[in-house]
Amino acid sequence: MALVAGVDSSTQSCKVVVVDTATGAEVRSGRALHPEGTEVDPGAWWEALRSALEAAGGLADDVDALAVAGQQHGMVLLGRDGRVLRDALLWNDTRSAGAAQDLIGEFGADELVARTGLVPVASFTGTKVRWVRHAEPDAVPAIAAVALPHDWLTWRLRGFGPEGESPLGPVLEELVTDRSDASGTGYWSPATGGYDLALFEDILGRPAREAQGDGATASGDGTEVILPRVLPAEAVAGTVHSSFLASETHRIVLGAGAGDNAGAALGLGAEEGDVVVSLGTSGTVFAVAPKPVADSTGAVAGFADASGLFLPLVATLNAARVLSSVAGILGVDHDGFAGLAREAAPGADGVVLVPYFEGERTPNLPTAKASFHNLSIASSTRANLARAAIEGMLCGLADALDAVRATGVEPRHLLLIGGAAQNGAVQEVAAQVFDLPVRIPAPGEYVARGAAVQAAWALTGSRPRWTVDTVKDQAPDHRPVIREQYAAAVGSVTF
Q1: How many helices (H) and strands (E) does the chain have?
Q2: Helices 382-406/480-491 angle, 10° precision
Q3: Model's pTM, two decimal places?
Q4: Which of 64, 71, 26 is nearest to 48 (CA)?
Q5: pLDDT value, residue 248
Q6: Where are the alpha helices (DSSP H) in 214-355?
Q7: Which of 8, 64, 87, 260 is catalytic?
Q8: Is 260 a catalytic residue?
Q9: What is d(CA 298, CA 317) in angstroms, rounded to the nearest whole number?
């Protein structure tokens, strides 16, 4: 049995799945935690990766390929000696919000969208690079390379790293990434498929170039910052260094890697016409599209995917925790919450929850608060409150789907994933809120599985089409009143 390994190096943890290359069946897995916080020493990711690989049986002789999918947007700054210059700033570190506004003020949203597919927000790598320029100017001259989390881990697996601490040393020319993760930086263009080097220089105040790779030696006078070479989806990034293998004669091919959402799309087997709604701590809506998307409102991020297509995406702050918050108010567990919600009719007798418990990212309302609307003596029941919580959460994501559609994307099917998607009441209400057929795939580590897809692709030269198990196909039951009530409630609130 030929096996491949997929890695999901997320904000919270590192997960590894080892699967059968032919069928995609999981053979073994491993997991290790990451430190909490929005600023993390990348060395912790490296140790967690090695621990998770060990828990998954190690890089044994039966594993023929591996790829790493990772949290997007994280900023890893490297010096010329290959050492990390400062703790990495993660996607959820918001100190660069002012830098995002500065870039919009300097260039205008329309120009930035045309050049990168994105309107800057605090999450993106480019805004973090700009923040460093102004907040930590003494660090700027020492920056020799800027990488993303999955780029850095792939580089380390190949044997590169800090001088004196890695088999092959600090060969920055060997840094690689993929188009999906590059598209989240804010200085790479999905439309052209290349870095906007002039924009990067405006962001940091120093010139940059793309790494040459392929055994190239350093060129130039050292003033240029190196950005990872961007590989296509099926590319071989190199091989795992023999010092990390159970047998020094074994060879493990490395795939290019991917950003986490693009990895999930690969793991789900999503294709053009599919839209994925993920109900995790945050909520995301993304679609596989044939052309790059440019949304000057900033609602939709025009990312690339990990298959050669594009991945327009909307992110919201409020998803599964909306349900757990209201369940806590009602004093019930998840099953009890679902039971209450099923007692109420669609529309919850007019009760609406505007679900901005943590402010909101899309729409951009960072100081907004959640609120119940249209409560009366008759409608103020526990069942209606539970139902309104589910409807409010899903209406926010339906608005996100509308934003994706407004860019010209025409979705045909909806895949509902994430922890909250396994709630039976959520499944039923989703069929009433969204006007698309709803499929609920079986729970799984889809980001890691997507990385495994990429590993198999790099190994065999063709993208595998593994079967994804389905828990349920929810028949369409569209009830327009739910979104009509929600729109009226949101429109009545002053944020």
Answers
A1: 14, 26
A2: 90
A3: 0.93
A4: 71
A5: 82
A6: 260-268, 320-330, 334-343
A7: 260
A8: yes
A9: 15
